[in-house]
Amino acid sequence: MSNPLDTDAGSELFSSYEAELKLVQADLNQKLDQISELSGEPRKSAIRLAERTLDEANELLGQMRIEKQNIPSATRSKINQRFRNFESDIDGQKRKLKTMSDDRKALFGNRYTDNPDSDQQLEQRQQLLSGTERLDRSSQRLRDSQRIANETEGIGRDTLADLQLQRETIQHTRMNMLESEGYVDRSVKTLRGMARRMATNRIITVAIITVLILLIIAVIYSKFH
């Protein structure tokens, strides 16, 4: 562990960081001792707590590294030595925590075994493969559904285009029919006019013929009387 505090050798701020770091180190040591007695999920939770405490210690070290630059060079050698002691202590705690984190048998408890051919390990592999297969099947179904949705969307667009074309065709046919009806109406009017003129011409012709007959009769009558 590092040397006792020497407040005369450094600034008050550095000394306050130093005192706080000692408390954090003590807390970290306590957590590391607890981890060695745990396994499974409790061990994982304890490791996460210890990692957060280690991060806090490293943050304090960073603050101390900055602050010691402000200490006069005459007393900085003692400060540097104490700082290196703290770095060494925290580095050792970090390695110890990593060793505990890498202990998979302690992390997973009785579920973990170093024998890859054990029945329990094979069962875990089978469960993993089964889950992977289910995931693949679900992904395939999702892709199929997406493909069907895209095809349906394409069919819908084609259908809408066909309906639009048919609508335009119907409108064009309707306009042609209306135009044809106009032609028929004009033709009917023309035929009626022609029929009236023919009737008038017939009446005039009959009248002329009647007048001629009467004139002929009058001429003949005048000759014999």
Structural summary, described in words:
The protein has 225 residues and is mainly alpha-helical. It is built from five helices and no strands. Helix 1 packs antiparallel against helix 2, helix 1 runs parallel beside helix 3 and helix 2 runs antiparallel to helix 3. The N terminus is likely disordered.
Helix content: over 70%
Shape: rod-shaped
> Would you count the extended β strands for me?
0
Tell me the number of helical segments per DSSP (H or I, 4 or more residues long). Answer: 5
H and E string: HHHHH
Strand content: under 5%
Please describe the biggest sheet, giving its number of strands, its sense, and whether it closes into a barrel. Answer: none
> How does the helix and strand content classify structurally?
mainly alpha
Distance between the termini: 176 Å
Query: Could you list the spans in which at least 5 consecutive residues all have pLDDT below 50?
Result: 1-10
Mean pLDDT: 82
The value of Rg in angstroms is: 56 Å
Short description:
86% of the residues lie in helices and 0% in strands. It is mainly alpha-helical and 225 residues long.
Describe how the helices and strands are arranged.
Layout: H1 12-35, H2 40-67, H3 73-102, H4 104-108, H5 119-224
